[in-house]
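Quick one:
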Amino acid sequence: MSMKDALEKIVGKENVSDAAADLQLYARDLSLLPSGMPDVVVWPGSSEEVGQVVAYCNENNIPVVPISSRTHVQGSTIPKQGGVVVDLKRLNKILEIDKVNRLARFEAGVTWAQYTAALKEKGMRTIMPLLPRPDRSVLTDTLEREVPTNIVYDYGEPTQSMQVVWSDGSIFRTGSASVNGFPDSKSRGANPSGPGIDFYRFLQGAQGTMGIVTWMSAKIEHETKIDKIYFAPIEDLAYAQDFLHRILPRRIGQECLLLNNVDLAAIIADKEDEFDSLCAKLPPWTLILTISGVLRRPEEKIAYEENFLAEVLRNEFTSVALSDKLPGFPGLARKLMPMLRAPWPEDVKYWKNRLRGACQDIFFITRPAKTPELVAIMDSVAAKNGYPISDIGKYIQPIEHNRACQVEFSLFYNQEDEQEKEMVARLNREASVALMNAGAFFSRPYGDIAPIVYDRAANYTMALKRVKNVFDPKNILNPGNLCF
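Output:
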């Protein structure tokens, strides 16, 4: 029996394809990495079907590449060794929205557009990254530790529990989902540690190399009652970081981020031809800070935070012009506030593709005080490689009340220009190495950067390989990714 025939017996003839047109859709993504063709693609309709597909592939030493999102940007879903692409887009149910315990359980194929709309109908919201693509999988982005714009410590880890298919096809539930009678058991709780040992961190950032997660429970929150958004034009990044270090550990603010003029112009432009004029008018950096009142005593919470901010600005940081308006941009508050709590609109070209059509991101974790130095290093390497400094998108996201921050540099390029693509690929490698040498921590390495990171962490890499050998001894799950 052929591989295609065997898979058809599991998921049905209409949910398996080896047609060239279908396979081409999975052979490449929006990254700079080379393409790789799968042999077959399957669209299972349940966790049990996923398990049976994986079990068959394990028995026959066939590579398996799991996919959940509709758009991919890091190269982690390109088949490196052929095999079977397991596309989970049919697993697109929101299984429950529990307002009492403030959690939602959803399958791998649920997108940001679908998820946020369903939560809004229930008066709930999710804590999310900056303007995610509407067709990206919520589960994938959560597993990949995409950093949320909300800096409150409680939201730093949204994962509660999950269901995973191991490489032998067996199905396993983590944390509180592992109790008898789940999901109806009163003891299911919301603690990710659950009874006994938990595996949820083991599966984070693994890019489908340890197991295939088919559903997840994650934290959600009630919609806010009152919201206010503030802006501050920033010339001195170090001074701005000192200000954030003063206010964020005091639990002031909800969303908080720093965007340079390139990124902010790409986000707020109503039309693509407005970008250049907006970029010229915007300050080098803009601090965006929201404060919110939730269910209990929202007016008092807002008043406390406003009073604290006023005192700090009056007595300590007189040069921070924090206001509910950004000079020269009337109506920006009304426009940007709802954008921070929604995915990018489905009918508008994605903001990172508006400038040149494609984008390569460099992102890492660092201490806030190091951000001016690392920005200077990025500018220096870009200039050396002939990439205009004025074209680099820059985004700094404080994490957990500014305990740390993620820095993201966006290199925009024309995907049809091979010389430009080669230059951006070279710049990506050189800048990443220079930033690593200066202390940047690449916690989520992809593509060309992954081998560099793992070569520098020999003991960690050896431990990962030993664990991989336990859970996936035949190395069928997304081979060629991470250090496997």
